[in-house]
Each structure stands twice: as C-alpha cells, then as structure tokens.
Design goal:
The chain has helices at 30-36, 59-65, 72-76, 78-89, and strands at 13-19, 22-28. It is of the alpha+beta class. It has a two-stranded antiparallel sheet with strand order 1-2.
Length: 97
C-alpha cells in the first residue's frame, strides 16, 4: 500500500483514529512518519535507558515498530512512554474508579 502522504514509498506505519464513530486512517512510509512526528516522537537521550534490562528492547526499536518487548519495558521506558500516552490518549493517568 502506498504512503498516504507522499504516494511514492510503501507504507510502514498505519495510524487509525476513531473520534465519535468517525474513522480516520493514515498509511505512512518511514520517512513521512518520522517527519510528521505523529505518534512516537524522539525521546531525549537522557529520558530513556539504552535498552530494557530484561529483554534488550531499545527505545529506537519501540519507535520503529510500536511494540514493547516485555512487561519490564513499561518500567524501563516509563518517562518517554508518558509523553506517548499523553499524545495518543490525552492523558497518562489511569482512569479513576
């Protein structure tokens, strides 16, 4: 599937947003997704460790694939993940019961 933005390269990042039952989809190549800083952004080097001590997943791999490697990644990357959660969900705080 071609990139929704440039139309040239093959899409690697798929973004779907649902707001009040209205679905918006973007299919982006790596270059366009990086230039838009749409979902993951770049974490300052001091904000994230080089890798998760349990599985070895790096922040760069998370940015590229959008997947954490194990439950310990949530602790290892807590600071930069907080920013991602805010951008995606509007908050990083758990829902109050």
């Amino acid at each position: 599937m071609p990139c929704s933005r440039c139309g040239k390269a093959e899409a690697e990042v798929f973004f779907k947003q649902i707001v009040k039952s209205r679905v918006t989809e973007l299919h982006l190549c790596g270059d366009c997704s990086a230039s838009l800083d749409l979902l993951f952004g770049k974490a300052p080097s001091s904000a994230a460790p080089a890798s998760c001590s349990a599985c070895g997943r790096t922040w760069a791999e998370f940015q590229k694939y959008g997947l954490l490697g194990c439950p310990d990644c949530y602790d290892a990357f807590a600071r930069p993940l907080e920013g991602v959660l805010r951008r995606v969900h509007g908050t990083s705080a758990p829902k109050q019961a």
